[in-house]
Fold this protein.
Amino acid sequence: MPIDGVSFMNLRQQLAAELAKKISGSTADIDRGHGCLMTGNKIFAFTRPDESAALKLPEARIAQLLLDSELRQMVMGKRTMRQWIVVPNIDTPLNLKLLLEARDYVASLPQEETSKPATKSSKKTAKKTTAKSAKKITEKR
């Protein structure tokens, strides 16, 4: 759902909408409740509850940026995301340059076909179908 069509936005979504106005070639959208910044149909940044943002950048660039103690790699659950870095106070001029860098990086990536991962229920159905097929073959013998 586009941010412009939403009558109520949380602070993260409002921040994304404001940032999109400052970053040419980007649009703001909502993904899983986060305000996100997109180039084309690809997310290059999303806002977080503490006015920080997660930005997608090449691993080598992230390694350079981690030398600054304020920046940290994005961790989701127990996984450290190799191409995502968390930038505090995203609305500062220096950090806006990082947003431009993230936009350009993601725009340069090849278009991927997205497919939904298999859900647990579809895995169970596949197991049941396989088990039934194996049972029928065994019964016929």
Observations:
- Residues 56 and 84 are 5 Å apart (CA to CA).
- The longest strand covers residues 79-87.
- The two ends are 55 Å apart (CA to CA).
- Residues 3-140 form a domain with the Aspartate Aminotransferase, domain 1 fold (CATH 3.90.1150.30).
